[in-house]
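hiii so my PI (J.) wants the whole complex modelled not just the main chain, which honestly fair. so below is everything: two entries, each one labled with what it is. i double checked the lines twice but i was tired so who knows lol
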Amino acid sequence: MEKVYVIGAAMSSFGYYPDRNLVESTRDTAWDAIKSSGIDPREIGFITASHMGRGGTFGQRVFAQLGLSGGTIINCENACASGGTAVYLARMAIASGVCDMAMVIGAEKMTSIQGFIPPDPADYNGATGMVIPAGFAMIARTHMEKYGTTKEQIAMVSVKNHRNGCLNPRSQFKMPLTVEQVLESKIICDPMHVYECCPTSDGSAAVILANEKAAKKYCGKPVEIIASVVLSGAYTDRPDRTMSELSTRVANAAYKEAGVGPEDIDICELHDPFAITELWHYENLGFCKRGEGGRFIEEGKSEIGGQVAVNPSGGLLSKGHPLGATGVAQVAENFWQLRGEAGERQVPNAKIGMAHTMGGPVTGLDAGACSMQILKV
Amino acid sequence: MEKQDEEHDQIQEVPLREDLWAEAEPDGIPELIASQCGLCGGIFFPTSKVCLKCVSDEDLKTVRIKGTGTLYAYTQVKRGLPGYTSPYYLGSIDLDNNGPRAVFQLEGCSLDDLHSGMRMEACIGTVRTEENGTRRTGPLFRPAKQRS
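here's the output for the full assembly
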């Protein structure tokens, strides 16, 4: 297996842009990644394009405008994990020797979708009216009941990520929040507040991957992908919702592949569509013991400068969540952080990073898909 | 409820799915239609083509299970999708006799009435209303009545 490196990254600003032409803005993001990495784009041998609802051959519509449409372009959908899955596929193509260099783009225009991610009425849970926040509201309640997690601790996740988002020029929100403001915002699904939910976002991101030979040719400080995992939820008849069986399995598989443990992670771009989700994943990814997620945030362990800087970019809660772009943007953030290029939000001495996405409501499963990359400089 | 239905008999009621529940038992609680695997004993609701644990259809039967269970988790959805009367309640219910943990809309309750671990029972009602007014019906759960 060839080693695989990230050698370039770009993203658009995320935000509410209903009038933006997504094909053209994604083209511009892809070109930014190409220009900033200094590669000859004609050497790209494999392209994945991550999106959930952009119609047929979106990736080809983007790359046709760059004169780069002759080779293999695969469009990739795995709900919230689409971007992480597209990175997984591109990494696999290089690792298996299919090509020397690959590119991943991710994009979404959530402002064109009614009801965020409407559940499928042909799926049983979807038909009952089980909207996505409802599932996580139930998880919040079970976590509070079992472990004594408080609503203030959950709100602190949103406060932290909005504080980080203020430092990120590409973040949708640059809006500091207090715990009081979060808890006074309106309830979406009891006990979840609107300031504990990610916004509706448009945007795009791109990364360029290379094998060792191409990385040496073009990049002075490449970032190695030392693990990449994509798995799906397994049927469980009585799932313990205080934990995520899927994210736990994915993290364990990724740590094993990378040969590192949760204590080695300096920065983690973690899937936080809701504040409770981040607190829950501190435990699922092994950053703290089961039941201690509330204390973990309260003691500042997930802050920039803490035990592990979680979502220094602002995360989905503040930076925004254009589905197909999210997992790609997480890898881009890791690229910048591990190279020391993250500006005001830079995590000091970051050497090992992680990107994690999970999503897709399916009856009987924790979630449809979960992706993880561990990266090292 | 029945009287109201007579008054609005022009409004069509169509089950959410054909295979979700069976006529009410003598105690008035509808039974749920599930699949049970003879190999591992697993029970699946809604019905399944194969045993989701054994990945086998060798000994999978359609069975009726009691429409009773215990509340595992719940929420109140303040504003749902079009067709759902908001706010509404959702609950994750551990169905009795080793049934699965399944999601249902809850009715006849407020947030103050609900607590995890409480006994719940099924009833049939409207899950959502389509644009043309057709009511899609299915099993809902409500706090169990005390029975002698």
